[in-house]
Amino acid sequence: MSDLDGVRAQRKAQTRARILEVARELFETCGFSAVTVAEVASAAGVSVQTVFNHFATKEELFFAGRVPWVEGLAEAVRSRGRQRSALTALRSYLVDWVRADIVAAATEEHRRFVATLEAAPALRVYERELYHEAVTRLTKALIEAGSQGWKEESGCRRGRDPEDVSIIASLTASVWLAAIRALLLDLRSAPPPAPGTAAVAAVVELAERILDGLQNGLGIVSGEHGSTSCGVLTRTESSEPLAAPRQPAPQQRPARQMSLGSGGAGRLR
Would the pLDDT of 255 be above 80? Predict the structure, then answer.
């Protein structure tokens, strides 16, 4: 990068920071819905087009720098170490997210952020869209992790269908994020615990218990207890292939009569 390019990049970053600073002050003072992009541009000393060059929408401007989890969840899975499973990396990120949110909740800046957010329906809608984007990104990252697992577990007879990985990845991303998001939304509506207190530790412990329950449940569908996917999301590169479980003999049941409805579909009686 030339010196001229470096100066331009620095000026661009300074302009972006100035727009963010002014916008947040206006949103918190006047309310998100009452502030226009033109007013933000005027207060920042730039054109409306300059604002849109940095932020596609007013909602994006509000959330800029405040939602690292949109990309961070997927990145945590992709950047995990060779000896770390996808679920371990995801779990660690989620617990850290809860802990960081608790710490932030005690600050005045966070309280103003939440107050502005709750007062603007458009922001709540956009926040849900960000959440769904995070789920989509995380699902793709988990599918990639699972697909790598298929190649490493070529000796495993169970669950070699990539569709199994896609289903498990989608369920994991959706359910785990929904659980943590519900916890964080509950915390948002309650007085925040003081940092460093037992209450903070209790919330973090609750998040870990929630994830424990979800991961134990995932074992049933991810192959840890003998189902179809070979547990590819819970395995590391050093894990040994799992042997296929012995299937129990089918139980003999008394014959039942079958009656046919008018549509020809059989019903057991």
Answer: no
Tokens of 61: 């401007």
pTM for this entry:
0.76
Burial of 266 (0-12, 13-18, 19+ CB in 10 A): exposed
Pick the CATH number of 7-63 from 1.10.10.60, 1.10.10.10, 3.40.50.410, 3.30.70.120: 1.10.10.60
Listed in sequence order, the residues at least 6 apart from 232 whose beta carbon sits closer than 8 Å to its beta carbon are 145, 146, 148, 149, 150, 153, 159, 165, 168, 222, 223
By residue count, the chain amounts to 269
CA–CA dist 110, 188 (Å, integer) = 10
Phi/psi-derived region of residue 233, left when phi > 0, alpha when psi is between -120 and 50, beta in every other case: alpha
Q: 14-56 pLDDT, tens per residue? A: 999 999 999 999 999 999 999 999 999 999 999 999 999 999 9
